[in-house]
Each structure stands twice: as C-alpha cells, then as structure tokens.
Amino acid sequence: MKAQPLLQAPLKRRRGPRVAVLALVLCSLLVPFAFLFDRAPSGGGYVTTEERHRQEVVLPLVDHVVVERRGRGGAVSGGRQDAPEKISRGSSEVIHRHAPEKRISKGSPGIVDQHKQIDSHSKPKVLPAPKVKPSKAAAESTRDPREISKNTQVRQKGAKADETEKAKACQLEFGSYCLWSREHKEVMKDSVVMRLKDQLFVARSYYPSIAKLQGQEALTQEMKQNIQDHERVLSVSTVDADLPSFINKRMEQMERIIARSKSCTVDCKNVDRKLRQILDMTEDEAHFHMKQSAFLYNLGAQTLPKSHHCLSMRLTLEYFKSSSLDSDDSPSGKFNSPKYRHYVILSRNILAASVVINSTVSNYKEPGILAFHILTDAQNFYAMKHWFARNSYKSAAIHVLNYEAIILEKLPKYSIRELYLPEEFRVLIRSIKQPTENTRMQYLSVFSHSHFLIPEIFKYLNKVVLLDDDLVVQRDLSFLWNIDMGDKVNGAVEFCGLKLGQMRNVLGKTAYDPKSCAWMSGVNLINLDKWREHNITENYLLLMKKFKIKDEQSLRAAAFPLSLLSFQHLIYPLDEKLTLSGLGYDYGIDEEVAQRSASLHYNGNMKPWLELGIPDYKKYWKRFLVRGDQFMDECNVNT
C-alpha cells in the first residue's frame, strides 16, 4: 500500500513536459501558415505592397527659400568658373515655394529579417493556384464604348499630370537643364531592345521560383527556352534596326509566359528582392547620368565658345602690334559732358557688348548724342579696346575702361576690386493654396557689387542708363531721358510676383517693407545725383557687414538681398513693355510678343552666343552682329 504513491509521483511530473512538447510541435506547424495568410497592418507582421502604400504618410514640408545663383555664360575670367551656389534655409518665406514632400513609410523595416527566420526552417508551401480573372481586353469588350473612352481620357490626363510633376521636380533640382533637355530630347533608337532587356530580367526573376514548383515543369521549360531566345537576340542586337522581323511574336510569347508565372503562387521574397534590385539600380543610374548631363550643361553655359576666345586673343595681339598702343587714352570731353546720353555696360564679352551698342544705335534717331562707357576687366581690356577702335557704330562715342585698374588706382578704399557682371538667380515660386498648379520658375537678374561703385567712377555724370550685355534693343530708348523720377534713384521693371515679405529668411533682420516688389536689371535708368544724395553706396557697404561673407560664392550670393534692400522705396517702376525677359530659358515666348518689345533680355543660362542658346531667339541677337570682320572670319565666329 505504501508503494503506490511512489509510482504515481513520477507520472505527474512527466505530464507537463509532454504538453509543452505537443504545443511546440503544433506552433511549428501553424507559424508558416500564419505568415502566409496574415494581412494585419501592424508593424510587426508581414505587410503587403498595397498595405505599405496605404500606410504611406505624406508630410508637406514648411515652405522654405532656395536661392540659386546662376553663372554668366561666356565670361572670360582669369579665375575658374565656379558652379552655381544653392542656399537653403528652413522658413515660411519664399523665393522658392517648391519644396518636395517628405514621405515616411510605416511597416517596412524588419520584413526581410522576419522572412529569413521563418524560411530557414521550412520549405515553401505550394498553395492552390488562384482563379484566373478575365483579361482587361475581354472585360472591356462587354462595356459601353463611351465608358471606355472616358476611362482612356482619365488615364491620359493622369499621365500628363505625372509628367508635369516630374518636370517640376526636375527643375527644382537641376534648373533650366530640364527645359533644355526636354526640347533636345532625342528619339530612342533602342526602345524595343530596352523592352527586351526588361522582359528578360523579369523572366529571370521568376524562373528560380517557378522551377521549384511541382507540376509546373512545362512552364519552366518554356520559360527557359524563351530566356535563351532573348539572350541570343540581345547578344547580336544593340539598336532596334538589328532586331529580327519575328521579334514581336517573341515578345508577345514572353509576355504570356510572364503573366502565367505571376498567376502561380511562388516565393515572393526572392522575386521582390530581384525586381527591387533592378529598380534601385536603374533609378540610381538614371539620376547619375542626369547629374552628369546637368553638370556638363552648366559647364557649357559658363564657358566662352572657342571661337570667341580666339577672337579675344587675336584682338589682344593685334592691339600690341598696332600703333594704337602709343595713342592717348584720356577720354574726350564728350564722355563727361551732360549734353550726351550716357549708357554704361559691364561686360567681358566683346561680341555681346558690340550687339548691345549696335542695336541701341541702330534704333536711335540721333545716334550722334550717344556715349557708351564699357567697364571690363584687365584680361579683356585691350581686346575690347581694339575692337571698338576698328569698328564704328554710326557716330556714337565709345569709351572702354579697365574697371580693375580704376578701383586699384583711384578708389583703393573699396575692397570689391574684381569686376562682377549682373548676377542672375533662379527663383522657384509655388502657391501654397494650389502647389501643384501654380508652380513657375523665373530668372531674376540684379545688380552686382560692381554696380554700386558706378557713381564713384563717373563723378561728373548726373544720369546714366545701365544696360546688361545680354540685351538686344529693338526700339528708340530716347524716351527714357524724358522721365522725371522725382526722388527715386533706380528706374527698373518691377517683378511683383515676388515681394520682400516673402523673403524674410533671405533678407535677414534688416528693416524692409514686406509689400515692396522685386525688380530686375536689364535696362535701368539711374539718377546718380539722387544716388549720391541718398548715400546708396555707403548704405550698401553697411548692409554687407550684416551678411556673413566667407568666400566668393557667399559674396556673389549676397548680391540678391543687397540689391533689393539698398533700393528700398527708391525704385521708379518702368513700363513692363520696355523689356521682355526670359529669352535665356523660356521656350514658350510668342514671336509677335518678342517683336513688339522695346528690348529683349536673354537672362538665363541659354545665352544667344552659346550653342545652348534657344534657336528661335538667336535671330534677334545675330541681326545686330558685326559682319565682315577679318578676325571673326578667321576664328569662325559667324559659323
């Protein structure tokens, strides 16, 4: 009787481990099925592609400013041409309201690791094939034709909207390069070859998984045969013209095989990984090539053409060979006389300055009262001087000055001793209310640091007209001298699409009127007496100290806020019809509008003397180009 409890105690101790073992075996059988059928959108389980898409949270960034300084095309300089600078600061103000949206995806992390843990202990389960749905063509054949047409229009509209969004995103990152590349888009000669490669990669992605399925031996063999056929064709074909005549049938056959493979239940992890690899590789490669092309585009926009460089060198050598070297460089009385109409041009480009002067003189009723002052750098001074000595522009007087020598000898107290041309900035503007519709890009050109020393250089003048060297004059500008600007200093065309109140983060803590409009250089009527009276140059130097100037890039970038702040409440608005801007980046300017404008401003990267220039607008510039010069023919400038 006493031995019975001793026998029962061990039996009770064994019951717990048995239950635990049975539970573990049952869990090991159920866990793979749970992961195959689980659709829970929580962060710890398997998340399908559709669920990830639905959980994608779009957070629009706060509007911020992006000011991008653009290089001047065709400038000859002793130093290197730096790439455009981009300044980005978080704020609610806008020079550019074109911020990309930040996308955050939930549930994505950890998916691959979980699969590794599960699949390492279990073989893929073969599930019954899902029911094959009728094809789209069969479904649409039973629908109303009007409904089909309506859906087609909706799809086309959506495709256009996507293309517009891509174009805007491209302009945000690469600027006018996107406009240029779209206009010069070449027809693909290997589009069918690319489709063959895409089919081949998709088929290769599915083949290992299909080969493991039981009962799919025929599909496996057929897919293998088609993969080999595609490889054989691609090995001898690089463009569409090399493809055999039966290639369309092969492509249709491969499409059917891929569709059958997609209908099979396979291990999606391997297929997904391979397809994502090619997607990432393709996107990275495309972005790399776009960055490379944009760099070369900007390099071409900032480089003087070889023929222009040749012309400059030949003129410089000829100057030192000629007797003009010993001539008197002192200006005649007409260059200081208030009786003449004085125009000032800052330029390093001989032909650009020549076109500005020639177009102005050709449209002037009394060219004998015109006096042009060209400020250039030391490198181009002698070439510029010899060019205008050997070419006459009716009876207009032309005076070439070495800006750097003047600052060094007569104005040594100023630190800005290098000649700076008008600075150009790319401005992206997006409406807060309709961000996808009202997005536009503008190029604003403003005064450089060299402009603020003009009153000191021309002490005996009381009024001048400043002309940019990328300008073509088409009308008589004599009416400018009859304008009474009152107490204003700078007569300019205003750009009220951008106001100072939208640029608080760019303008700093300096006091300003938020309702004041931005303005543009190009054709500017300057009252030098009022300039000196309002101490514009001194105020400009004081404002410059408030900005952190670290290097030349930051110095040139500061020209934008300094120009806008220095002439606050001192801008006299000129008629918008005086200057038509955008011929250096806008392909959509109407020809009639261009012909009616008093002047054409080629602001932007695509200057008319560059190969990148917009072909439809080059004719206005070439019309005033000097013809028949010996050096131009020898340097092939006309071609």
Automatic annotation (TrEMBL):
One of its GO terms (cellular component) is Golgi membrane. It is found in: Golgi apparatus membrane. It is a single-pass type II membrane protein. GO terms for molecular function: glycosyltransferase activity. Pathway: Glycan metabolism; pectin biosynthesis. GO terms for biological process: cell wall organization. Keywords: Cell wall biogenesis/degradation, Glycosyltransferase, Golgi apparatus, Transferase. Residues 82-104, 113-122 have a biased composition (Basic and acidic residues). Its EC number is 2.4.1.-. It comes from the Eukaryota. Residues 125-139 have a biased composition (Low complexity). The keyword Cell wall biogenesis/degradation applies. The keyword Transferase applies. Residues 71-160 are annotated as: Disordered. It is an enzyme of class 2 (transferase). Belongs to the glycosyltransferase 8 family. This is Hexosyltransferase. It comes from Urochloa decumbens.
